[in-house]
Amino acid sequence: MEERLENPKKFASGFCFYKVFWIFIIACFLGDVHEVLLHFLKYGEWVVRRGVIYGPFNPVYGFGAVLIYITMYKIKDGKIIFLLGSMIGGCFEFLCSLIQEYMFGTISWDYSSYFLNFGGRTSLFHMICWGAIAVLFLKFCVPFVDKIVESFPLKMGTVVTWLFIIFMVFDMSISLIASRRQFARHKGIEPRNAFERRIDEIYTDERLKKAYPNTMEID
After folding, report:
1. Among 6, 83, 169, 211, which residue's CB has the most CB atoms within a 10 Å radius?
2. Measured between alpha carbons, how far is 146 from 175 in angstroms, rounded to an integer?
3. Beta-sheet pairing, 117-118 with 106-107
4. Distances (CA, A) of 177 to 167, 169, 202
5. Is the pLDDT at 191 greater than 70, yes or no?
6. Mean pLDDT of 159-169
7. How many CB atoms neighbour CB 198 within 10 A?
8. Paired residues of 122 in beta bridges
9. Largest Cα–Cα distance of the chain, in whole Å?
10. Average of pLDDT values for 146-151?
11. By C-alpha distance, which of 201, 218, 214, 180 is closest to 49?
12. C-beta atoms surrounding 77 within 10 Å
């Protein structure tokens, strides 16, 4: 992958915050599409499988893509990318599952039936998938994203990016707050103030189940 220097007169030129953010957004969207298609192929039904309450975005894929990009964007050897991608992806997936269980009392995947799995949170097979995804992502997807994102007009790109930043910060924050309140409700913890009562009224268990149909509670 050819390294590009930053150009202050060009939007998201080179390795910069705006480029990283758009990689995050695109990966969030593609991750959501992947989850929906995968569920359809396995079960023959269209089900929303996103990671936030609003919009077709799955931040797990976004953060995973950003992690791979910022740690390996200078590496050109496909074998090294595959090995590092396998390790980084596996560790990231394991950590995400651990954090979700600790913070919300739920999990979104269980790989206990896979050969050489690690606590059901990741497995050798999924680590290999992460390695392959890392190679495809850095060798093919990133150069394509470079061309698309850098073609945005400077002013328009800046404004649209900050609108997306504000939206995603809100979306991820309210999703986190609502999920934490659901966890607390299931433990019998009453809301402590008017804000938490309002969260309980708006983001009911039924609504969150529609947003996260693949989550499973841990006893």
Report:
1. 211
2. 30
3. unpaired
4. 15, 12, 12
5. yes
6. 97
7. 12
8. 118
9. 55
10. 90
11. 214
12. 10
Q: What are 113's two structure tokens?
A: 């039936």
CA distances from 86 to 19, 31, 172, 212 (A): 23, 18, 27, 26
With bands split at pLDDT 50, 70 and 90, how would you rate the model's confidence at 8? Answer: low
Separation of alpha carbons 196 and 151, rounded Å:
43
What is the model's pTM? Answer: 0.86
Calpha distance 92→198 (Å, rounded): 33
Torsion, Cα 63 64 67 69, to 10 degrees, reads: -110
Residue 28, by phi and psi: left (phi above 0), alpha (psi -120 to 50) or beta? alpha
Task: Look up tokens 């499973």; give the residue.
Answer: 216
Q: Tell me the per-residue pLDDT of 9-44, one tens digit each, with 9 for 90 and over.
A: 789 888 899 999 999 999 999 989 988 888 788 878
Question: What does DSSP assign to residue 138?
Answer: I
Alpha-helix residue ranges (DSSP H) falling in 105-153: 124-136, 142-150
Angle of helix 17-43 relative to helix 59-72, nearest 10 degrees, comes to 130
Average pLDDT, the chain: 89
d(CA 94, CA 83): 17
